[in-house]
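Usage

Read records sequentially. Each one opens with the input sequence:
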Amino acid sequence: MISATITGKVAAEEFSGDPRGKEVDFTVEQYPETMFTQVVAKTSSNRFFLSGSFAANAPIGEYELCVSLVEPVIDHPDKQTRSKSCTVLIVLVNPYHASDLAHTSSSNLKEYVEGESGLVWQGLSDNNNGFGWDYDQFKYENLQVATDRLFRLHVADRGDLVTVSRHLTYSIGEDVCYGKWGGGSYTSGRPSGGYTCNNSPR
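and closes with the structure output:
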């Protein structure tokens, strides 16, 4: 018998603040069984082929996929051998597929998915300039950073793209980079006294 299981890591407790340099405890959550369909086909006496498909609203992120094999021992039908193999599985949205929740028009695909460079604007409302920006969205390192930022979000919640986009916005601002809000000194990378949009200074 062959079966596949998918699990993901989530922060064990509600975690706020910058995780860099801090110990973060994780718990393992099962991937929702209703979001993943697996089919096993026997291709020879000792070879099997396992394929799977995901629902349109399947939770995205980085997971561990483990395939387990249980088979009887020859000449000992009351005994079994068990083997297990695991690998990294990354589930993403597919804006090119009509049934996917992220599906969009060809013009949007060209602008927001396939475009590899653009402009970022800096300055004041009446005095600003555009600067070239390379997105590098096809680099694996950037994909890894994006999936890592979901560590606060439960696996079951990662299928809601609105929740995921809001969570990524929060996590990038909380863990990766800091913006400039209003006047004051920013020599430390953040204003003294914290941001006015936060409940507490940081």
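Summary fields computed downstream for this record:
- The longest strand covers residues 76-91.
- The chain has a mean pLDDT of 82.
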